Amino acid sequence: MNRASLEKRPAEVAAMFDDVAPKYDIVNDILSMGQTRRWRRIVFDAVGASAGQRVLDLAAGTGTSSEPYADAGIHVVACDFSVGMLRVGKRRRPDIDFIAGDATSLPFADNSFDASTISFGLRNVIDPKKALREMLRVTKPGGKLVVAEFSHPTFAPFRTVYTEYLMRALPAVARKTASNPDAYVYLAESIRAWPDQDNLSAWLTESGWDAVAYRNLSGGIVAVHRAVKPSAAPSPKPAAN
Ligand SMILES: C[S@@+](CC[C@H](N)C(=O)[O-])C[C@H]1O[C@@H](n2cnc3c(N)ncnc32)[C@H](O)[C@@H]1O
């Protein structure tokens, strides 16, 4: 995988992440200027799961986004389709349940999780709306969805500076630190092309999620969207004789 392009196929995306897996977490920390830990804490609080509950962390990669749940005694299932990422994760956290699976066709039963979350992964899924519907299917009625994703800074002058950083500095830093710099050119391009906060909210609603809301982090560099799976429709009353 050596060309940065938004027109990737699932196998190419998986191969790209297999490639970056060994250095993924360290490069992430450098490029986000140490903000990822704070963002992850906010996502964990938004999920609001308690010990004993079952949470799906989709596109979990090396499981860094899954760790806060495992540390809190929550049964987290870290699912990803890059075996390279899962392998790095399993080596580091053998206690976490890592499962290989595609976000657009999840290997889980209906209504099997108390909550579902996806951090910095939805943008990489080739058909993100299908993934949102799959997360709806596997989440219990009344259960939460939390999506953390890069987004669009809300303050226009900052947006201009940030876009410049994304398109120039990020690939340059990645060239010095990462094993596959093209993956970071793809990262920059995919962030720029990603829907803004309101459009992503609309996608969630279209996919069947209720009570959609979001919160901007770091001026909108990241947005955390949350939603709830509608409770099951009441069973139809038996027809009167
Ligand atoms: C940027 S990493 C995020 C990893 C982790 N959630 C985190 O916050 O560090 C994105 C992950 O999405 C995964 N991914 C992309 N498309 C996927 C799909 N269709 N099904 C499952 N995982 C997918 C990639 O393999 C990669 O590990």
From TrEMBL:
Example GO BP: methylation
PANTHER family in alphabetical order: 2-METHOXY-6-POLYPRENYL-1,4-BENZOQUINOL METHYLASE, MITOCHONDRIAL, METHYLTRANSFERASE
One Pfam family per UniProt: Ubie_methyltran
Annotated residues for binding of S-adenosyl-L-methionine: 62, 80, 102-103, 119
Keywords: Menaquinone biosynthesis, Methyltransferase, S-adenosyl-L-methionine, Transferase
Function recorded in the entry: Methyltransferase required for the conversion of demethylmenaquinol (DMKH2) to menaquinol (MKH2).
InterPro entries attached to this UniProt entry: SAM-dependent_MTases_sf, UbiE/COQ5_MeTrFase, UbiE/COQ5_MeTrFase_CS
Metabolic or biological pathway: Quinol/quinone metabolism; menaquinone biosynthesis; menaquinol from 1,4-dihydroxy-2-naphthoate: step 2/2
GO molecular function, one term: demethylmenaquinone methyltransferase activity
Reaction catalysis annotation: a 2-demethylmenaquinol + S-adenosyl-L-methionine = a menaquinol + S-adenosyl-L-homocysteine + H(+)
Family according to the record: Belongs to the class I-like SAM-binding methyltransferase superfamily. MenG/UbiE family.
Protein name listed in UniProt: Demethylmenaquinone methyltransferase
EC number: 2.1.1.163
Upper taxonomic lineage: Bacteria, Bacillati, Actinomycetota, Actinomycetes, Micrococcales
